[in-house]
């Protein structure tokens, strides 16, 4: 029962981490900047993400535009895209492997590779979490350096958006889930061979010498019958 609780805990944390990674990858709230005009009516907010950038006006107008050219993007943005996509793909693959490797599932039931699959899923979750953590940490460092750069105009300075914080939380959840699958994985191979040996020991094969002894006992009654039913010579003398 203990291993089932640990499997459910790791699987639940991994699903939360996967959901957070996907949301953080898609939403444009990685960098944000607010600009206040002469009055509150002209206030405008700017947000930038991995795939699009949006402008929000205080009048309620919300406009978004996808990045038109991939090659025209900065190198850090291209790297962040690639790392987050790889992280999401690894999490999806690890979720499928963990589903097969969990002790509570009937897929590959009785197989000795369930514990190996659970460990492999845990390693994949840890790698996905590290990639996501690297991406959000890199973005945070870039935003902080640009914000503290005195040469850079204030119109080009952004602050950290909520997607970065969501990425931090998702990466930690994914790493914890991978640790649960790796550390608390029970080796089921230690139990299954014992059941097999006990089942084969129910009907042992008789050794060869018992068959020979049985055959000798089959011929013994002929000698006894001859000695008991016949008459001895001493009875007539």
From TrEMBL:
Localization (cell): Cell junction, Tight junction; Cell membrane
Principal location class: other
Keyword field: Cell junction, Cell membrane, Membrane, Tight junction, Transmembrane, Transmembrane helix
Bilayer-crossing regions: 7-27, 82-105, 117-140, 160-184
GO-annotated cellular components: bicellular tight junction; plasma membrane
Lipid bilayer topology: Multi-pass membrane protein
Superkingdom, natural source: Eukaryota
One Pfam assignment: PMP22_Claudin
Alphabetized GO MF terms: structural molecule activity
InterPro entries associated with the record: Claudin, Claudin_CS, PMP22/EMP/MP20/Claudin
Function: Claudins function as major constituents of the tight junction complexes that regulate the permeability of epithelia.
Family: Belongs to the claudin family.
Protein name: Claudin
Taxonomic lineage: Eukaryota, Metazoa, Chordata, Craniata, Vertebrata
Gene: LOC108920514
